[in-house]
Amino acid sequence: MNEVLESRANLHNGCLRVNGVELKTDAIEAEMTYHADAPDPVDAARRALAVRELLRQRAVALALIGCDVPITDEALDLLLAREQPSLPAPDRESCERYYMRNTARFRRNEIVYASHILFAVTNGVPLSLLRRRAESALSDVLAAPQTFEAVAREMSNCPSGGVGGSLGQLLRGDAVPEFESVVFDSPTQGVLPRLVNTRFGFHIVRVDRRVEGDIIPFTEVADSIAAFLSEQVRRQAVRQYLGVLAADAQIDGVELGGTQGPLVQ
Fold first, then answer.
1. Are residues 256 and 209 located together in one domain of the fold?
2. Beta bridge partners of 17
3. Do 111 and 191 fall within a single domain?
4. What is d(CA 207, CA 101) in angstroms, rounded to the nearest whole number?
5. Rounded to the nearest 10 degrees, what angle do helices 41-61 and 73-83 cross at?
6. What is the pLDDT of residue 37?
7. What is the predicted pLDDT for the residue at 165?
8. Is 14 helix (H, G, I), strand (E, B) or coil?
9. Is residue 99 part of a domain?
10. CA separation for the pair 119, 127 (Å, rounded)
11. Is the distance from CB of 167 to CB of 114 less than 8 angstroms?
12. Which range of residues forms the domain containing residue 68?
């Protein structure tokens, strides 16, 4: 109960203003749902809202959007094109280098057999308490891996708990990206030593078996790699641009951390 009150107190602790524009508490509370796995969801929500407002105000100043229009990806693209028109496109050499360094990601028919124990995010349970429960259960399972199925049946908030947490076989694209990256992009098998955080909550994960599949030739994935690297360049440009805007802005109620502030989601 004390943690609930503390969380609510933090939500209402101090006004959030960007150049005099106040961002309301209800907007912060709504934004928190997108940052449930952050160490401090309230702070993450305040930072994200401040960033969007900062970018929105610049877009309004340049007459790219109306005064009361929220910032969108399309408006952000227009803003970057106006202020930073020469973002470099990745060349073939860069794409090939990325491919060679990340060959494990470019496989077809790759299968992972996995199980999990889900501690689901709910409105009634503070995230800090939920995380502690999950970490305690993980510690117990790591100490006695043979108890995984029993713990899943007792504690998991996923229907898979009824079958000892088994998710069966997973292909790339079957799970949310943050879960997929952990189970596919690491050679680790057995119970993973750390919790996996997703939008659904905290997962204790066991990788039971892997089928490596076949490597996809570079020519088949070159376009998707180029698109990915272009997006990375775009995000870095946003960080740098945000640092410039933040340096000239009056921001109250949150620290953006210079050029490492959060991006528009």
1. no
2. 22, 252
3. yes
4. 23
5. 60
6. 66
7. 96
8. coil
9. no
10. 10
11. yes
12. 2-90+225-260
